[in-house]
Each structure stands twice: as structure tokens, then as C-alpha cells.
Amino acid sequence: xxxxxxxxxxxxxxxxxxxxxxxxxxxxxxxxxxxxxxxxxxxxxxxxxxxxxxxxxxxxxxxxxxxxxxxxxxxxxxxxxxxxxxxxxxxxxxxxxxxxxxxxxxxxxxxxxxxxxxxxxxxxxxxxxxxxxxxxxxxxxxxxxxxxxxxxxxxxxxxxxxxxxxxxxxxxxxxxxxxxxxxxxxxxxxxxxxxxxxxxxxxxxxxxxxxxxxxxxxxxxxxxxxxxxxxxxxxxxxxxxxxxxxxxxxxxxxxxxxxxxxxxxxxxxxxxxxxxxxxxxxxxxxxxxxxxxxxxxxxxxxxxxxxxxxxxxxxxxxxxxxxxxxxxxxxxxxxxxxxxxxxxxxxxxxxxxxxxxxxxxxxxxxxxxxx
Length: 371
Fold this sequence. Notes:
It catalyses: Hydrolyzes free adenine bases from 7,8-dihydro-8-oxoguanine:adenine mismatched double-stranded DNA, leaving an apurinic site. This protein is of the alpha+beta class. Helices cover 44% and strands 15% of the residues. The protein is built from 15 helices and eight strands. The protein has helices at 2-11, 14-28, 41-50, 56-69, 73-77, 81-88, 95-110, 119-123, 130-141, 150-160, 168-181, 188-201, 220-223, 285-299, 359-370, and strands spanning 238-249, 252-257, 268-269, 272-275, 303-310, 314-317, 321-335, 344-348. A hairpin with a 2-residue loop joins β1 (238-249) and β2.
């Protein structure tokens, strides 16, 4: 298979591809992002972690706030995880924040605050994979390394007409082969930034701008009019139906600290009850009867229930999950002592604005406060 790959790549005009990307980047690419025009590896590392599976415009305000609070590796390494998670709240993929914190501690306390330069040492750090390590080496040290994020994959698949119906691991291996062999000998930083910008501006997943694409002359997907046929099919999004319990007493709200593993790890969230998908559509007395016993059983740990109100359901979409959430506001006749029980916490409402809570929880809470 390797020999076949070599024949395919030799037939393709590698120089035209890289020169086109470099030329396009110089004229149309992004040049004034907050993490550009610097060799500060801390800035570059932070931006690359934040940009994993997240759009540039979303990252910018988080990046700026993060740097204001943690301007260097020392301040981040010495911070409490809770403070890191607070600043990350809303950006998603929270394991990135945990790994960022672990990585900062490792570099500061075990590496004297100095980032490693070699690829193997970088890739062995928490949260840094092959593509991120390559990007760090390119932008911090000008090294000739290949990246392979979602944008680059999409460009290569379309331009080279790669069949993605086979095993995902095999496709990934093949894409890395192409990414490495298409690297130019010069202007590696411009080329690398160009690939990322080109994929997010021109060769987007839905409705790519083929008519103004300078690569259409060599793009197999464009020539065969199969722009989306070659792309890796996304996994089906699973529905997850839950009821969230909102209990407010005086100036406190009841939160539950989530486990480090799984969705929204280490964040504060409303206590929840998992619903079967077929029940989520029944916002009537049948649903109230179904959950009435569970609500009373749960609330008995914290007080005596007066009544409860089922609020309009909301939807929250992640990459692989779609949450159908029914918020249930519970009113207490009497509240027991506001002491911490297991992972349940009575949290001051005045601190919520800057607290590590998931986006749907923040949305529900803000809606309740407006009433």
C-alpha cells in the first residue's frame, strides 16, 4: 500500500499545492490573531489547546481572559484547578482544561518552567497529540512538521479525492502520509497557518466556496462534482434526556460537583435525573406523575418540598450528544442546614457569574433570575 501511495503523491503537483496555500494565506489569511506574531511558546501552546475542535472566533475572548489571569506558565501551574475551570466554563471539552493544568504543573515543577523542543517530549505531555505538538514546533521554533486537524483533513480528502469508506485508522494513517509529503521546504509557518485558515474560510464542511477556490484546478472532488462524497461521515448524534432540579433557598442554589470523568467533568451543575427518550416529549400530568416520587425522594435530603414547577425544555448540542433538558424548579417549605453532602454544594448565587458551570446550566439559571 505504501508503494501505491508514493505513486499517487508523485502524480500530484505538490509544489502547486503548497505554493497556492502560501500565496492565498499571504493575501487572504488571518494575520492579526492574538496568538500570532509571537514566538512565546506559552502563548502558542495555550492557543493550540483552545483551538482543538473549537472555532477561532469562539476562542479569542477566552484566550484573552485566560492570559490576563494566567500570563505565564508559573501563574497557571500554581493556580487551583477550580480557577482554571472557571475561566474555561462555556468553551467546552473540559478535559482540555484539566490536561492544560496538569501539563503546566509538569513543565513548571519538573522541567524548570521550560517547554521541551523535541517532538517526542512534546507529544508525551498531557493534552498534546501529534498535530498539536507539530503546530507548537512550527509556530514556536519554525520546524518543518505536518499538522492534521479537521480543516487539513477536509482539504486533503477533497483535493486528493481520498475514499473514506474504509477503516478510519487506515484513512488517518493515509492522511498523515500526505500531510507530511506535501510539506514545502520553506515558509512552513505561513503554509501551516494557511492550511488552517483555508479550511475554515474556503474549504468549509457545508457549502464550500469552490468557485473562488484557487485549488479547484487540482481538486478531484471539484472535478468529479462530488464535493461532499469523499468526507468522513460523522457519527450519529445520540439523544440524552435529563431533568435538572433547580433548588434555590435565600441567596443559595443547590449544585452538584460532577465527576472528573465524562461530560462537564469537575464542573458544578444542577442535580439531574435521567429520563427515557420517549418520556421527554410528554410535558403533561403523566410526566409529572412519573417523576413526582423521584423529586420528593431527592428533596428529602435537603428540606421539605412545597411544590415544583416544570419549565420549558431546552436543547443543548455537543459534537456527539444532543441534550434534551427539562428544568424543574423546586420550592421548599423548609430547608435543612446548608452543609456540604457528598458532592452536593449550596452555592452562593452572587458567585455564579464567574463559576465553573456548563453552558445549559448558566442559560437555565439566567432565565429563572429574569422572572
